[in-house]
Design a protein that fits this description.
The chain has 403 residues and is α/β, with parallel strands linked by helices. It contains twelve helices and 21 strands. The strands form six sheets. The protein has a four-stranded mixed sheet with strand order 2-13-15-14. Strands 4-5-7-6 form a four-stranded mixed sheet, with helices on one face. Helix 5 runs parallel beside helix 6. The longest helix is centred in the N-terminal third of the chain and has 13 residues. The protein starts with a strand and ends with a helix. 49% of the residues are buried. The structure holds shikimate-3-phosphate and phosphoenolpyruvate. The site of shikimate-3-phosphate has 12 residues, from helix 5.
């Protein structure tokens, strides 16, 4: 379904949106709930990715298809490989079959797992025969995707002797690792993380425990962009807290530079556009916040300011090659943009082309990142339904903030 958006004659109303729980926290906690069944979870994400993971964990079928859900693919690989009675083929969408998984598979094999590639070496589908993993030390690259490391950390307390992971190279997307470690610690699992080494101690059971998932900060980014592009917009988003496990909460600091002031309320945040804000070109290293790169690039384009975004080497192996996709679609709108395999450079564009059809490449974040431009120019979003991967009610919520 293609969607035509035009909010050029509308203004933002002072209203509130309740965004569903963080996809990253939810996916970790659902795996941990299998290890510790007395864990109670509240405000879980209603995203397709989380539903895929949940369904996979209760599936009785010998083939599990997790669609486009990368985190679910990685976490379930480790989960099934360490569960002695499982015999499963784990597969996903055609894009998932192009997203590398060798680093994780090799680490699991080193620990004693039985995993074979059904089609192409290094990529899903995977044939997994679950086993008791007896080894307790493993080395792996830390500079390709943090998801491989989180996948091992999540099963680590269930291994007889726990697990020590030695990471090689510069650790990428580190806040996601910190999130995994903090959630383990919240459940009483002992973790020692020193530099390139993370050691998790074994744990068989936990005290009764309820965890309420904070709402998703990556989803909030699209509303930050909208407020930044508005004249004098103000919006309330819930449920967000000052102490967040999500690295994308850095939005508060980043969007301050685009004239958006965030204030914390009891159960959420208020975003407010600062009047007559003096905009400057921006340089940001997003190695810790890869998922908001698209939002930020489009905000800068909409504001007519230049940006240099670095630390983006993981973008090429996500739902699509996000650097190429951004270059293609921003160029159609009239941007002067240059990308390398790990950075994006945008010149200040004084004008933008209206009525452009934005391709979304099966990537939810392409659709949502470009949508806020509709406050400036009429725009069309191809295959708008892709948003459900992380944000089921995005279009409804977007429409609800305009008068
Ligand atoms: O662990 C997680 O929940 C995630 C880690 C990040 O991936 P990489 O570590 O591959 O950058 C991020 O992009 C993804 O959306 C979610
Ligand atoms: C990269 C993402 O997800 P995943 O890797 O879990 O598919 C994302 O949500 O932006």
């Amino acid at each position: 379904m293609d969607l035509s958006l035009d909010y050029t004659n509308k203004s933002l109303k002072k209203t509130g949106i309740i965004i569903s729980g963080s996809k990253s926290e939810s996916n970790r906690l659902l795996i941990l709930q299998k290890l510790f069944p007395n864990l109670v979870l509240e405000n879980l994400s209603d995203s397709d990715d989380t539903i895929h993971l949940k369904d996979a964990l209760t599936s009785e079928s010998d083939t599990v298809n997790i669609g486009h859900a990368g985190t679910a693919m990685r976490f379930l690989t480790a989960y099934f490989a360490s569960k002695p009675d499982s015999h499963i083929v784990l597969t996903g969408s055609s894009r998932m079959q192009e997203r590398p998984i060798q680093i994780l598979v090799n680490a699991l094999r080193d620990l004693g797992a039985s995993i074979n590639y059904a089609n192409n070496d290094g990529f899903p589908p995977l044939k997994i025969t679950g086993k008791t993993l007896e080894k307790q030390k493993v080395k792996m690259k830390g500079n390709v995707s943090s998801q491989y490391i989180s996948a091992l950390l999540l099963i680590a307390p269930s291994l007889e002797n726990g697990l020590e992971i030695e990471l090689e190279g510069e650790i990428t997307s580190a806040p996601y690792l910190q999130m995994t470690v903090t959630l383990l610690e919240k459940l009483g699992v002992k973790v020692d993380w020193k530099g390139q080494s993370i050691k998790v101690y074994p744990k068989n059971n936990i005290d009764n425990c309820t965890i309420t998932v904070e709402s998703d900060w990556s989803s909030a980014s699209y509303f930050y962009s909208l407020v930044a592009l508005s004249q004098n917009g103000e919006l309330n988003l819930s449920a967000y807290f000052k102490e967040s496990l999500q690295g994308d909460s850095r939005l508060v600091e980043i969007y301050r530079a685009f004239g958006v002031e965030t204030t914390y309320q009891e159960n959420g945040i208020t975003l407010k556009k600062i009047k007559d804000f003096d905009l400057q070109p921006i340089s940001l290293n997003l190695i810790e916040q890869p998922d908001i790169a698209q939002t930020i690039a489009v905000t800068c384009f909409g504001l007519g300011i230049a940006c240099d975004l670095t630390g983006l080497h993981t973008l090429k192996i996500k739902e699509t090659d996000r650097l190429e996709a951004l270059k293609n679609e921003l160029s159609k709108l009239g941007a002067e943009i240059f990308v390398t395999d790990k950075s994006l450079h945008l010149k200040a564009s004084p004008q933008m082309n209206a009525d452009v059809l934005i391709k979304t490449y099966n990537d939810h974040r392409m659709a949502m990142a470009f949508a806020p431009l509709a406050i400036k120019i009429p725009i069309q979003i191809q295959d708008a339904e892709v948003v459900s991967k992380s944000y089921k009610h995005f279009w409804r919520d977007l429409d609800s903030v305009f008068t």
